[in-house]
Design a protein that fits this description.
By secondary structure, the protein is an alpha/beta fold. The protein is about 35% helix and about 20% strand. It is built from five helices and five strands, in the order αββααβαββα. It has a five-stranded mixed beta sheet. The radius of gyration is 14 Å and the shape is globular.
């Protein structure tokens, strides 16, 4: 989670919403880290989770990330939760909860839907205060 928080700080410094994600492959020790790049790439899908999943899948040479864990500083939105399911991520560990846009514990609750093919193990609230503080400070400065 420390690496995800560092990615979030970097994203915030670039003017992006400060969210960071890290995919860890326990079998190989390979680590992929990414921060939001929505504004930079003018791509609404360039969330940290999506970028990290794409890079991890490319590095693994396969679309399924079974045996891999995703650490992210904010509860994933519905789009990212669906991508996590499709990628077959083993475990999702996230920091701050997102009552407004979250898609795991809030909102769409993607993994609880009968149409969801894969539900990862989910652990929320890891380094929650630090992750939430990054977001609060970022949006405070924007307003």
């Amino acid at each position: 989670m420390r690496l995800a928080l560092a990615e979030a700080r970097d994203a915030g410094a670039r003017g992006e919403v400060p969210v960071g994600a890290v995919v860890v492959d326990d079998r190989t020790g390979h680590v992929v880290a990414a921060g939001n790049r929505v504004e930079e790439l003018a791509d609404p899908s360039a969330h940290a989770e999506i970028l990290a999943i794409r890079e991890a899948a490319a590095a693994a040479g396969r679309p399924r990330l079974d045996g891999m864990d995703l650490y992210v500083t904010l509860e994933p939105c519905a789009m990212c939760a669906a991508a996590i399911s499709l990628a077959r991520v083993r475990r999702l560990i996230f920091g701050a909860y997102d009552p407004k846009m979250g898609g795991v514990e809030h909102g769409a609750r993607v993994f609880d839907q009968p149409t969801c093919h894969h539900r990862p193990e989910v652990v929320g609230g890891v380094a929650e205060q630090e992750a939430a503080a990054l977001l609060k400070e970022f949006f405070k400065e924007k307003r």
